[in-house]
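User: Structure tokens for this complex, please. No commentary.
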Amino acid sequence: MIGVHTDLEAYAAAVAELPATAVATRDPSASIVVVTGSNWTARVRAAWAHGAAAVVVADPASPVDLDDLAALVDEASARPPVVVARPRLRTDAGLGGLPADHSSRALVAECAAPPRSTPALARDAIGWLRVLSGGALASVATDAARVSALAHFTADAGTPATLVCAAGSRLRAPFLRAVRLGERRIEVLVEADARHRVTVIDEGGAQILPRVFESVERAVLRRAVALVESPDVASDLSELLHDESLAAWALNAPSHQSS
Amino acid sequence: MYGVGVIGAGPGAASLHVPTIARILAFRVTHISDSGSGRAAALAKRLAARSSVGSEELLADPDVQVVAICSPPHRHAEQILAAVAAGARGILCEKPLAVTADEAERVIDACRAAGVALVVGTNHHADPAWGRARHHLVANGSTVSAVSVTVALPPNSRYHAVVSQPPSDPPGPAGGRPLPDFDDPQVAADVVRQLVIGLGVHDLPTLRDLAPRIDRVVWARPLPPIGFALGARAGDVAVQFTAVMTPGGADALWRMSVIADDGIVDVDFPPAFVHVGSADVSVRIPGERTTSYAGIPEDGYLAQWRTLAAQLSGDLSVEYDALLDDALYAVELADAAADAVRAGGGRG
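Assistant:
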């Protein structure tokens, strides 16, 4: 049994859904501490200073200070694990069970959101391109204007991964879709309530992967507990830095080709 | 009833226009020509039509009033000009209308001067579902901020087989056709230009409806073995176009997503060649609702032949200026994409 220190209702509910594993506590020491807010990197460091056993970052704000985040990634290697909850990037949505597929020809992402949500959504769309390509992306070209941005990345073996992202002044909620094109096509649609619809299409037809009914909060708490009890290292922060860095590059460069 | 002479006897004729014409009583295939493959004779025989080699005999045939041009793109302009000179009353030219701006201007001038009915086979633009999607955007006062076209195509033979009975081609040389050298920037640029103007052209008139002026191509690259990716800026509108061909697997995906300030309109076109009605249109208002429109029985292929019939009967005027502007738009985008490939050193 491990304590969970949180002020967030959704995480309190998740603790209640893990009665054999977690218990709510006001003491951050030796506990899993849940942080959020625009200054979440400082709160991660504070949690470490208070002796947290692990830290959960709840739906981190974007954009972030990239230098600060990079420093945090460096510090994290010698610190208790940090798990990042990204409700629009549920990599536990069934993709892990798919057989390896090397037929990917291209990756495409489309997203739209109210203007204030655009940076976080672009970051998560890039996260999906990273997940569907199976590795880090390299920037190639971008073009950002008043309400829309384009970006071209390459994945391993030069596979292109492209993104179009728009700010919709009359949108009330985000839209995100990422597609891996190949003989086996994978489409990930993230709806406004963060519900994921993952469809795998091959010659036999289309298979809709089972809906994930576990809340993102419960899932990340379970991961945090597992990391406390194992020597495994979480890559969440470095993945977040990758996605944030590319999103900042994509959304802020007027028109740019990487050299 | 108008007699149709079909120039070209490949899949575009055998699996597309011949079966489509059979669905429309206003037209009857009377003559088919090829460039010497022998396919025209076999195709014409079961239609009780004449066949020939080259286009001269076909254009001189008194039973040919309408010409369907189903040859490779670089032949289209010269064959339109020849058809006009031979006195054709109407022409349906497979896309693209022409491969250069000069060609496009000359064929439109010739058709306009002769009063020839003219339709270009951009079936996605003719698809009645596109009219519905465009109406939705206009009626709602939507401001378009991005267009994303995503295409993944298995071999066409899968779809030929459900609308025709194509003969088996003799096996090609072992190992198939060698891939172009995509590391050579000029080769890569030529391939991308051909693909934009030959494959991407399906959606360029629809794209022009939404983004009438392309300011710049941000990236363009070939996607081996066959495909391309490009990104472009058109004022406030970001354009992403990715097309790949796969050796098999998943059925065709041909989706145009229009991202507006108030929602997302997805237009999912059916695979080429088949007749399963219009594209599927759905409108997503995130956090509120998704509306899927019922399909329309008519598809873009049928719609373009009906348009030609209406032009021939005088019920519809020929949109020469729009056709020219569509053609110039495609040529300019293809040229800009080729320039971007060269600037990027080939593969992108």
